[in-house]
Amino acid sequence: MSQEYEPKIIGFLCRWCSYMGADLAGTMRAKYVPNVIPIKVMCSGRVDPEFVLQAIKKGADGVLVAGCHPGDCHYIEGNYKTLRRMTLLSQAIKSFGIDPRRVRLEWVSAAEGDVFVKTINEFTQTIKELGPLERLSNGIVREPAAAGVAR
Amino acid sequence: MSETNGSPEIKKDEPRIGVYVCHCGTNIAGYLDVNKVAEGAGALPNVVVSRDYKYMCSSMGQELIENDIKEFGLNRVVVSACSPTLHEKTFRAACSRAGMNQYQFQMANIREHCSWVTKDYAKATEKAMRIVSAATHRVARNRALEERKVTIKPATLVIGGGIAGIEAALTIANAGKKVYLLEREPSIGGRMAYFDKTFPTLDCAACILTPKMSEAANHPNIELLAYCELEELSGYLGNFKAKIRKKARYIDEDLCVGCGNCWEVCPQWRSSEAVKKRKAGVKVFHHEATISPMGSCYIPTLQAVPKLPVIEKDTCIHFKTGKCNKCLEACTLGAVNFDQQDTYRDIEVGTIIVATGTKVFDAARVKELGWGRLPNVITSQEFEILCNASGPTGGQILMENGEPPKSVAILHCVGSRDENYNVHCSRVCCMYSLKIAHLVREKLDADVFEFYIDMRTPGKGFEEFYHRVMDEGVIMIRGRGAAVSDVPFTPEEEGKLMVEAEDTLLGMRRRVPVDMVILAVGLEPQEDAMDLGRMLGVSCGMSGFFIERHPKLAPAMTMAEGIFLAGTCQGPKDIPDSVAQAGAAAGQALALMDQGEVSVEGFFAEVAEDACSGCRTCVPLCPYRAIDFITDKNVARVNPALCQACGTCVAACPSSAITGQGYSDDQLVAELDGALLPLSDLFEEPEPVGAPGGGV
Ligand code: SF4
Ligand code: SF4
Questions:
Q1: Interface contact B310, partner A, CB < 8 A
Q2: C-alpha–C-alpha distance, residues B86 and B95, integer Å
Q3: N or C: which end of chain B has fewer CB within 10 A?
């Protein structure tokens, strides 16, 4: 393929901060890589770790969860719960043999269009470096390195 | 347009989806292939009709949807256009008009999240397709929901008693609703209370403000909460609960008549600088200048409302050593009470108006301009006090040695339009600098130099005022005042302040000796704006001011339902604009309160009692205490009136017994499916990027 590998990434964005931050990046006409497909949730606290696993299973090479800064949650402290869950999740992911860098939690406020852009660009780069996850026919998802796939 | 999957006989609740791809003029169509997206969408499961159209939000666009719903029997609609923040309501309403449940509508944001931010046409088209596919998969699982009714308490809390807060409070109070006007300073009036005259009409600020202040204080529907702070806020649109802390004034409000016996005898000055200078025999009327007596027992301005003094505990000798009782003895009514404590009370309101104003830029931060170091370098704020008839000089413009200056320089944009401090334009400084120039020319026979970057005079009568001031002989120099020094290069510069600037019209450096320098300081958000924002659920923007719901269409609303913005807390503004926005905020709050109840989004969490294991994981997680545990049934139950649909409990329930209506697991997982769908079936692979002719 002459084309560069373009990772598929899912971005769960909380409605009050990160989604608005992404909107702001748009209004600013900031340019960033097109790899992250946004999914709006009411609060980052709504992101069931299960969704992250599902996303990976269904073909995402990386998952971003973005919420309001600690202390700024529209629902008082939903994002603290997210923080706890994501920490646990990244442990679990490691034990599945998947690089925990594929799941990223980021705080992006409604005013931080620039932070949003930076996050998307950086994260996409990280995933590009990690390469596409390999999906076996029996439903197992694994790191390309483990399968010896040359990148 | 494409019409696929359109079999006429369809089972009743089978999804029949219409997808509409908006061009938004060229905002979307110029950056990605809307045609191709619409075509691709036509091949997605359950899509009955898919079209692209120039402006979906226009009435024609809305009619298109309405007609299709009827003609094709659509029961789901996806509009891929701009941000839902902008037009979700518009399209939901269109769907409702055609008899479809509005929650079976889904918006796909391909403008802010795609066309505007993607450089590559083919990739933008693909991303848009993914976003549309995600929305289309999701919408198939969107269930019909009912909006909830919320009753609204007919009372408003106005936070901030400046001109914007006062105006908003009066508007609401005159419409017959109760208002709590909260002000943390001892008196209402805000920044305007310190002005002598206002631009461009030059009317006396106090003459227009003080009647409003007393009207607010005496209005039967307004309860003034001066010298009070908002401690806590809970609740939501219609039913906010605020905890108010009333700070101890050490003055009994019921006994005090504001006679002034106490503040006149206070021997303690609040500013230690001022005390030192006064002891050294220097007249103090610049940095420490106030338009009020400035003891520890003081009144902020002589027109203060309420006209009650405050004793400042930190500087008061009584609180430090117990050795002074002068005010206590002077008060014949026995109103001084050193034992007073802060008190708390709870109030309940339906709507909130935030009018907390701004703070002025601290000129000490720009060291090279010499404020605080060089005498006779003052800020515009200090000039206002100096020029004010109730000020320390009775309105005379004097240098620190008591002489009138013979030449004055006014430096624009101090702390504004400067990457090092604030990038934003403070909007009022050009005009108030012209006003200052006029006041100096009116009161003194002095040369006035204005150092400006641009002259921004876009308001009504502003340009005319600018010409008037030029005609009065004010000398305009286009160039930022870069430095002020007192080091003379020539004998003529001896004893003067030298302003250095690059004159960008003449293309040369200028060094102008003057007697007094006035720094036109800009406006900044209040230091604690973020903290308040957190309490209210209102975010601050890049410059730190509160963000309105939409900069053009909803400038007085916030993303938090029932909370409105007025005045400079939303961004720099002059008085007329603050008053206008206050009126708008009040009008919107009134409109809500007059309805008595409003519909709010029908999203809420629901516990399936047969699936609930009774573990109680969810109960403490809910930030709104919306989950009750029904002990005799051993299940959790969500009170939909309290639930704000955050979904925290939904994600946490180990038994998956809780469904987040509107954001349920199956909806979000379907969205994932759609986003990650291999597009090759519906969609030609985007053109390979890189070298044309494609050598491998
Ligand atoms: S977390 Fe789930 S199972 Fe536990 S009490 Fe709440 S609803 Fe019931
Ligand atoms: S979704 Fe759950 S946690 Fe959130 S407000 Fe509703 S009941 Fe409480």
A1: no
A2: 16
A3: C
